[in-house]
Design a protein that fits this description.
With 377 residues, this protein is α/β, with parallel strands linked by helices. The protein has 2 domains: 2-171 and 359-375, 3-Layer(aba) Sandwich (Rossmann fold), CATH 3.40.50; 187-357, Glycogen Phosphorylase B (Rossmann fold). Helices cover 37% and strands 18% of the residues. It is built from 13 helices and 15 strands. It has helices at residues 16-26, 65-74, 76-83, 127-139, 148-157, 213-227, 243-252, 270-276, 291-298, 311-315, 327-339, 341-354, 360-375, and strands spanning 2-6, 34-39, 55-58, 87-90, 105-109, 142-145, 165-167, 187-190, 193-196, 199-203, 232-236, 259-263, 279-282, 303-306, 319-322. The strands form 3 sheets. It has a 7-stranded parallel beta sheet. α7 (243-252) links the parallel β11 and β12.
């Protein structure tokens, strides 16, 4: 059995989708099915550490979303036939699915953010893919949704039949994310950064308005006025859509000196960043899964998050929730977690209990089973 894995739209292993693919590749068994990767030439060595024995085939020499969409539309099927694949796996099917596939296809949909909100604020997919995505998802043999929320969206927005959707939640790397002892030093040093404690943390790309950073900044100002606490707000994530709006809001805040943007933060150092935080705040208007909630809870850090999209499904009773449109409500949860140590400890313990339900081993095992079932072999 020969399985092709499409690495296009996985951001070179640096985004949430990239983390997903890395963990999946680590868990491919050494025997059994024969897997190989195909994608951009510049990704040739991206996965060599986690999957050193897998061959990489470079395709689609012209960069850009539109060119890649056209490759998947006109060239992918011929390529799959030439490689004699028994099946193809698409870890980022919400960004780059095949339009048709002569071999069985399994795709993972992490979110439907490109269809959330108004046309002005939606994530940009590119003209070709926006037109073809719903029909392409309906053509995939099996669709893996990372949450029940995403499953519902697939059925509603893309009209994918429920019988073809399998819900397989993401996992968490318990060897990387775990409670670390707090030292007595007032500064967390993570080269090249120095974070003065205490700080509250938000880990997310700067994407306005979907990630809701502007309201987070307003809520932080309300928190500071109410408590007079020395907390800083650390926002860790690369600039994305309309990031300038967020930076402008921060610059206009009376507490701008306590707001710190890291830009893209190295994935390998994220566990230390989480562990040093007093609390983690997730203000997003939309999340297909909510990895930030899992990472924070696994690190033993209480979470305040929006009552929106998949977040209540992921965190369940282990977080304090707020209305993402209400800055006062968001600030209330910040105040509660930083002033009521009883609730702080309850959230911390509930979070550690909740993350036991999530495992990359289990995720990969179920995904491999779906791929094998789809091949019929």
């Amino acid at each position: 059995m020969k399985i092709g894995i499409d690495t296009f739209a996985c951001d070179g292993g640096r985004s949430g989708v990239g983390v997903y693919l890395n963990h999946f590749l680590k868990r491919i068994p050494p025997s059994g099915a024969f897997f190989e990767l195909f994608g951009w030439e510049y990704d040739r060595f991206t996965y060599s550490e986690v999957a050193p024995n897998l061959e990489f085939i470079s395709r689609c020499r012209i960069s850009g979303k539109t060119a890649n969409s056209l490759w998947h539309l006109y060239r992918y099927d011929r390529f799959a036939k030439h490689r004699a694949y028994d099946a193809c796996f698409f870890p980022a099917a919400h960004r780059q699915p095949p339009y048709k596939s002569s071999c069985p296809a399994v795709g993972v949909v992490h979110d439907m953010a490109a269809y959330w909100g108004s046309p002005r604020t939606r994530e940009h997919l590119g003209a070709v893919l926006r037109m073809l995505l719903p029909n392409s998802l309906r053509r995939i043999d099996r669709v893996i949704a990372v949450s029940e929320w995403v499953k519902g969206e697939l059925m509603e927005r893309a009209r994918v039949k429920e019988s073809r959707i399998e819900v397989i939640p993401n996992g968490i790397d318990h060897e990387a994310f775990y409670p670390r002892p707090r030292n007595e030093e007032s500064v967390v040093l993570i080269q090249p950064f120095s974070f003065r404690q205490p700080y509250m943390l938000c880990v997310s790309r700067i994407d306005h308005p979907v990630k809701n950073h502007v309201r987070l900044i307003k809520a932080f100002s309300i928190f500071k006025e109410r408590t007079k606490f020395p907390h800083r707000l650390v926002i860790a994530g690369a600039d994305s859509n309309r990031a300038g709006r967020v930076k402008k809001a921060a610059a206009a805040s009376p507490h701008r000196n306590d707001i710190f943007f890291t830009g893209h933060f190295p994935l390998k150092n994220l566990p230390e960043l989480y562990s040093g935080a007093d609390i983690v705040v997730i203000p997003s208007m939309y999340e297909g899964f909510g990895m930030g909630a899992l990472e924070a809870m696994a690190s033993g850090v209480p979470v305040a998050c929006a009552r929106a999209a998949s977040l209540p499904e992921t965190a369940e009773h282990a977080a304090l929730y707020f209305d993402p449109l209400d800055c006062e409500d968001m600030a209330d949860r910040m105040v509660t977690l930083t002033t009521n140590r009883g609730i702080y400890r309850e959230c911390r313990e509930a979070g550690l209990e909740r993350v036991r339900s999530f495992s990359w081993d289990r995720c990969a095992e179920r995904t491999l089973a779906v791929i094998q079932e789809t091949t019929g072999k």
